């Protein structure tokens, strides 16, 4: 009980010296949810439809688009760290350290997003390639200026581990809502008579751009930075020293490794499922059902996360969830002659298992930010979060082609109407055994390598509070 009181007392300390600030509550959770809603209204639109826009409207080759996406991800990774360091060098304003940047940069971000979908008829292929390169890189850079402060902000909204889990949960909820809206409504706007329509894409960009900007403003208005973090004194910020400390931050390195492996598995499943239902089950309609079920499992997990984390801890519930997912996918591999409906039913249980990791991951990041301060005495929220984002984007760039490579490796031949049995068996293994083994690996990483269990996380909050009081 004394530990809980020690943590709660920090919440009433304002980032504005002795100014009284309202306690953490539902308003903050909804505000933080709106932030990722704003992010994903455009991010998912781009992820889902930008390639087909470039190939079918601009007439750019898929190979060029692939190179563009690779270069952009690597550039974004650098932009993340640069912007994170910049924010950490700024003093907080009366509105906080991170919120003002969401307010300042969200409008330029949305405008750059709309510009990506502006089509000028009759231009040359070279013009369209140059236009795509400039506008996409610009959008990605501006996305960093909003996403880095947004992700970092969770660590100063509250420092209570349970409340941070709630923020992570609501962030995931925002992403899921955006995904549902865009995947349901987007195709109806951007395609006319089953063809990509330039005017439809522009209309979608404007509509989702307005919704994105409104969501950012709601996040700015509803969220409150309340944790009092002393200004770094006595130690000059030094990138070399920071990187050295980050590499010694075992929780950060561990959770980053688990996150990258999980991301690669997600990409692999996404690619393999298309061929699994098209060629193995001969039922592409079931792909829509799988997409809906995947979203539903997250919403089922969301109300369970907070009470389970409060009782057992983040590390503990995500490890159990990954073990459940690993068991289900490995079991699917060994079940003979499974039908489409049986596969979906069992896979749904596996999706429910890994939904906990997907939901809680952002709360892990706030904990490793605290651990960095514990190690170094420096509060560098933006830098630590941007380092995490940097590594994820490099991973995305490197893992982008993993699905295509794996499908080719098992013997898939696009020229054949019916694939060989070896190819079909390989596709089934890619969709079941491989992710099952990956989820088992993540379970082992969480259990044996990640050091911040429930007890240590709570103790870390108390120790940091004491250190901050001494530094004041």
TrEMBL record:
One of its GO terms (biological process) is sodium ion transport. SUPFAM superfamilies: MFS general substrate transporter. Pfam families: MFS_2 (PF13347). It is found in: Cell membrane. Coiled coil: none annotated. The keyword Membrane applies. The chain crosses the membrane at residues 37-54, 60-81, 101-118, 130-150, 170-192, 198-218, 252-277, 283-305, 317-336, 342-365, 397-415, 427-450. The keyword Signal does not apply. Signal peptide: none annotated. This is MFS transporter.
């Amino acid at each position: 009980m004394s530990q809980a009181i020690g943590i709660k007392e920090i919440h009433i300390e304002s980032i504005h010296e002795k100014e009284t600030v309202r306690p953490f509550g539902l308003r903050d959770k909804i505000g933080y949810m709106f932030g990722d809603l704003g992010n994903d209204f455009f991010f998912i639109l781009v992820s889902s439809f930008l390639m087909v826009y470039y190939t079918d409207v601009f007439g750019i080759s898929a190979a060029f688009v692939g190179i563009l996406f690779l270069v952009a991800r690597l550039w974004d990774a650098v932009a993340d760290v640069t912007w994170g360091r910049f924010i950490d060098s700024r003093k907080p304003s009366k509105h906080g350290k991170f919120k003002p940047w969401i307010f300042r940069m969200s409008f330029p971000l949305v405008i750059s997003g709309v510009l990506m979908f502006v089509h000028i008829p009759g231009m040359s292929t070279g013009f369209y390639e140059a236009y795509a390169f400039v506008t996409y890189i610009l959008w990605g850079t501006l996305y960093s200026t909003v996403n880095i402060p947004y992700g970092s902000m969770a660590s100063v909204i509250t420092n209570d581990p349970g409340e941070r889990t709630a923020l992570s949960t609501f962030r995931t909820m925002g992403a899921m809502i955006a995904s549902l809206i865009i995947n349901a409504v987007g195709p109806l706007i951007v395609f006319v008579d089953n063809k990509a329509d330039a005017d439809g894409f522009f209309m979608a960009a404007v509509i989702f751009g307005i919704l994105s900007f409104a969501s950012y403003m709601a996040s700015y208005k509803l969220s409150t930075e309340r944790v009092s973090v002393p200004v770094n004194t006595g130690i000059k910020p030094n990138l070399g020293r920071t990187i050295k400390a980050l590499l010694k931050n075992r929780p950060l390195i561990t959770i980053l490794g688990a996150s990258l492996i999980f991301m690669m598995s997600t990409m692999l499943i996404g690619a393999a499922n298309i061929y699994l239902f098209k060629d193995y089950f001969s039922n592409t309609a079931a792909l829509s059902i799988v997409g809906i079920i995947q979203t539903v499992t997250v919403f089922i997990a969301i109300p369970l996360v907070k009470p389970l984390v409060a009782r057992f801890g983040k590390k503990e519930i995500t490890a159990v969830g990954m073990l459940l997912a690993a068991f289900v996918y490995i079991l699917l591999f060994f079940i003979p002659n499974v039908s489409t409906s049986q596969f979906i039913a069992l896979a749904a249980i596996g999706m429910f298992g890994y939904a906990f990791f997907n939901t809680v991951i952002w709360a892990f990041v706030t904990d490793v930010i605290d651990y960095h301060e514990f190690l170094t005495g420096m509060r560098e929220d933006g830098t630590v979060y941007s380092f995490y984002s940097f590594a994820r984007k490099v991973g995305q760039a490197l893992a982008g082609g993993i699905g295509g490579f794996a499908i080719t490796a098992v013997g898939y031949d696009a020229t054949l109407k019916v694939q060989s049995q070896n190819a079909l068996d390989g596709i089934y293994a890619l969709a079941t055994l491989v992710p099952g083994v990956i989820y088992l690996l993540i379970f082992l990483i969480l259990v044996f390598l990640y050091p911040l269990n429930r007890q240590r996380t709570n103790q870390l909050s108390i120790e940091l509070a004491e250190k901050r009081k001494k530094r004041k």
